[in-house]
From TrEMBL:
<comment type="similarity">
    <text>Belongs to the SUA5 family.</text>
</comment>
<dbReference type="InterPro" id="IPR038385">
    <property type="entry name" value="Sua5/YwlC_C"/>
</dbReference>
<keyword id="KW-0548">Nucleotidyltransferase</keyword>
<dbReference type="GO" id="GO:0061710">
    <property type="term" value="F:L-threonylcarbamoyladenylate synthase"/>
</dbReference>
<dbReference type="InterPro" id="IPR017945">
    <property type="entry name" value="DHBP_synth_RibB-like_a/b_dom"/>
</dbReference>
<keyword id="KW-0819">tRNA processing</keyword>
<comment type="function">
    <text>Required for the formation of a threonylcarbamoyl group on adenosine at position 37 (t(6)A37) in tRNAs that read codons beginning with adenine.</text>
</comment>
<dbReference type="InterPro" id="IPR006070">
    <property type="entry name" value="Sua5-like_dom"/>
</dbReference>
<keyword id="KW-0808">Transferase</keyword>
<keyword id="KW-0963">Cytoplasm</keyword>
<keyword id="KW-0067">ATP-binding</keyword>
<dbReference type="InterPro" id="IPR005145">
    <property type="entry name" value="Sua5_C"/>
</dbReference>
<dbReference type="Pfam" id="PF03481">
    <property type="entry name" value="Sua5_C"/>
</dbReference>
<dbReference type="InterPro" id="IPR010923">
    <property type="entry name" value="T(6)A37_SUA5"/>
</dbReference>
<keyword id="KW-0547">Nucleotide-binding</keyword>
<dbReference type="InterPro" id="IPR050156">
    <property type="entry name" value="TC-AMP_synthase_SUA5"/>
</dbReference>
<dbReference type="Pfam" id="PF01300">
    <property type="entry name" value="Sua5_yciO_yrdC"/>
</dbReference>
Length: 313
């Protein structure tokens, strides 16, 4: 891969225009969403999409999420359904990704779907993501903008720490407000949770009026489920009430740490600060102990990411 100088763009009209032109031109542009920063490419351009895999060092069997500005654009790419309609009305734009069967004549590169007959599709809420998608007028494939297997980026600096010189530009609009990746729900069969994320599954179950099936874990339907994903360089120990010698502590609620996710015990605040805290603790060069996080609402997504960070690798 060739090294380039990565442009650091402001999210004003000029920055959006430049970023959109780069995308249409087949270049890679990192941009903020409400969940994490994405590494975007024109999803119809196979060479551009291949660039994502190369920049991230990502195994090529991992399919990517396609970002579009609205439901109409999502319908054009998929075999839409009543259930999709209900969920989109309730949660789009937002932190929900739907996996749906591909429409015929969808025009997406097969690298985006890794050859599957379904596509993961998302309408982000973030105003800068919305502005970029509307300006570019192409579906944008975007995984999280980090080196594969490392901690996801929630600031432009996190993006540059991993990908500077490997991508054309980053649109910098400060920290991501939700802070963990979108919830992925498959609607290819019965609604099935593939990845817990920024939209709590309780909210989806309430909207559908039925419990969700849980992903059974053998097929590669969501490779984000493989161990050693989101991993810092340091070892991670979960459910700790204090730091052992040689450890730094990530606190929560009443358990104060070297960094505390939310002293008030607020799960939304904890999700929003999780990845930045892991990036900062990782730089301290010690093992990381983590206080228990309640396993409900956004706590399910937080615990999922922490379990991956702690997985043997
Ligand atoms: O919040 C997010 O979802 C962020 C922002 C940038 O939108 N994106 C993100 O993308 O987390 P990524 O590539 O890191 O995770 C995408 C996940 C992967 O685990 C992938 O396997 C799964 O979505 N996925 C993509 N297409 C799929 C499909 N057709 N069927 C099942 N899973 C799919
Ligand atoms: Mg990722």
């Amino acid at each position: 891969m060739t090294l380039t100088e990565t442009l650091h763009l402001h999210p004003d009209a000029q920055g959006i225009e430049t970023a959109a032109a780069l995308l249409v031109d087949g270049a890679l542009v990192a941009f903020p969403t409400e969940t994490v920063y994405g590494l975007g490419a024109d999803a119809r351009n196979g060479q551009a999409v291949a660039g994502i895999y190369a920049a991230k060092g990502r195994p090529s069997f991992n399919p990517l999420i396609v970002h579009v500005p609205d439901v109409a654009a999502a319908r054009a790419l998929t075999q839409w359904s009543d259930t999709a309609d209900r969920l989109a009305a309730a949660f789009w734009p937002g932190a929900l990704t739907l996996v749906l069967p591909l429409a015929t004549g969808h025009g997406l590169s097969s690298l985006v779907t890794a050859g599957l007959d379904t596509v993961a599709i998302r309408v982000p809420h973030h105003p800068t993501a919305q502005a970029l998608l509307r300006a570019a007028k192409v579906p944008v494939a975007a995984p999280s903008a980090n080196i594969s297997g490392r901690i996801s980026p929630t600031t432009a600096q996190h993006v540059l720490d991993g990908l500077s010189g490997r991508i054309a530009a980053v649109l910098d609009d400060g920290p991501c407000p939700v802070g963990v990746e979108s919830t992925i729900l498959s609607l290819a069969g019965a609604p099935t949770l593939l990845r817990p994320g920024g939209l709590p599954s309780e909210a989806i179950e309430a909207a559908l009026g039925t419990p969700l099936s849980q992903h059974s874990g053998d097929a590669i339907t969501a490779p984000g489920q493989l161990a050693s994903h989101y991993a810092p360089g340091a070892a991670v120990r979960l459910n700790a009430t204090e730091a052992a010698p040689g450890e730094v502590l990530l606190g929560f609620g009443a358990i104060a740490g070297d960094i505390t996710l939310s002293a008030a015990g607020d799960l939304a605040e904890a999700a929003a600060t999780l990845f930045d805290a892991l990036h900062r603790l990782d730089r301290m060069g010690k093992s990381i102990a983590v206080a228990p996080i309640p396993h409900k609402g956004l706590g399910v997504a937080i615990n999922d990411r922490l379990a991956r960070a702690a997985a043997p690798r």
